[in-house]
Amino acid sequence: MYKIICKDGRAKRATFTTVHGTVETPVFMNVGTAAAIKGAVATTDLKEIGCQIELSNTYHLHVRPGDEVVKKMGGLHKFMYWDRPILTDSGGFQVFSLAGLRKIKEEGVTFNSHVDGRKIFMGPEESMQIQSNLASTIAMAFDECAPAKAERSYVENSVARTYRWLERCKAEMTRLNSLPDTINKEQMLFGINQGAVYEDIRIDHAKRIAELDLPGYAIGGLAVGETAEEMYHILDVTVPYLPENKPVYLMGVGTPINILEAVDRGVDFFDCVYPSRNGRHAHVYTKHGKLNLKNAKYETDDRPIEEGCGCPACQHYSRGYIRHLLKANEMLGMRFCVLHNLYFYNNMMKEIRQAIEEGSYASYKKSMIESLTSNEV
Predict the structure, then answer these.
(1) Set 45, 89, 264, 268: catalytic member
(2) Which residues define the annotated binding site for substrate?
(3) Which of 9, 87, 348, 355 gives 138 a disulfide partner, CB atoms 3.0 to 4.6 angstroms apart?
(4) Which residues are annotated as a binding site?
């Protein structure tokens, strides 16, 4: 159940209650693609850095170890030792981005596994079955993520099929949740709005999926080639046509500034690989911009990554030490950077929620963006 506590402009401060606990929104979901955060971060660490909800990937877990294996292990929560909400994406994005050779039909998509090349078929029913086996809190509908700059006729056909697939996802999830051996019979389905950068297609699709009265809605197919301004414009015109009494999830976005702008346009849920991926490459976020800890100027820098930061790395270790670990290819250095970045994102979301509650979101957003672009590090 989704409940708006207060609003500040279009920014919403809400709670989303699930069978695995309540999520305070706006929220950033920490990405654990294969049931693990890349960078040697455990689920026990996630609690320490303020993670409320974790995201795992249907396609990757289907390929390895196999969703049937996860089901036999008691579902994803038990498998990875995590008792808070989990969202699984449908595998659609990976099917269309990772698989070079694929064949799209009304039934679904046939493609080759990126791991061993074996032929896999995935459609709405298969995606729902895999996600039911994983027993996540929130399952995402199977959709096609068309390129942002695709031809209009292609996008129209793709979105029409994505809608038909959503109807099939909804019917299949209802069936699966009624089966006696289903682990999570309270699994929720989020629909996904598509339409590339065509605002009329986006709006029409938003209206149609809103009628299905799903527990939540996502906006997909953004941050895939269009400019930030185009993305913000699509949010401006699309979000008002999604139900205000349901959470809105912007998929795969993004930078701290992207998040600040999207919250201002009514978005509740975010996920992105940036904090963990950048951390693994020694790029760390601070309120004064991003820094590369491999730079020689940090060799004897005894300050933490960010003064006043409460993350496990900043509590005890210096930039100089973490730089040494990274240069020596010690995994601990990568782990510290990922922990710091995820803490930074989760803590920023906490500040966002507080600013909305205080009615000061506009000034918080302005000062945060100015600070993030100051590069005073």
Answers:
(1) 89
(2) 89-93, 143, 194, 221
(3) 87
(4) 89-93, 143, 194, 221, 309, 311, 314, 340
Helix H or strand E segment including 157: helix 152-177
Q: Where are the domains of the chain?
A: 2-272, 283-372
Q: What percentage of the chain has pLDDT greater than the value 70?
A: 98
Q: CB neighbours (10 Å) of residue 257?
A: 14
State pLDDT tens for residues 107-145: 998 888 888 888 889 999 999 999 999 999 999 999 998
What's the pLDDT tens digit per position in 239-273?
A: 999 999 999 999 999 899 999 999 999 999 999 99
Q: Residue by residue, what is the 3-state secondary structure of 250-313?
A: ECCCCCHHHHHHHHCCCCCEEECCHHHHHHHCCEEEECCEEEECCCHHHCCCCCCCCCCCCCHH
For 38-53, what is the mean pLDDT? 97
Structure tokens at 343: 């803490």
Query: Which position has the token pair 């809608």?
Result: 163
- From 45, 67, 264, 271, active-site residue: 271
> What sign for the dihedral angle of Cα 266, 234, 163, 252?
negative
Q: Which helix (H) or strand (E) holds 46?
A: helix 43-48
According to the model, what pLDDT value does residue 63 have? 92
- Binding site listing for Zn(2+): 309, 311, 314, 340
Model pLDDT, residue 280: 98
Three-state secondary structure call for residue 115: coil
Please name the amino acid found at residue 308: G
Residue 193 has pLDDT above 70, yes or no: yes
Q: Does domain 2-272 have CATH number 1.10.150.530?
A: no
Residue 193 tokens, joined? 């709005």
The predicted model gives 270-296 an average pLDDT of 97
Confirm whether pTM is higher than 0.85. yes
Active site residue 301: no
Output the six-digit token pair for 88: 């699984």
Write phi, then psi, for 4 (nearest 5 degrees): -80, 125
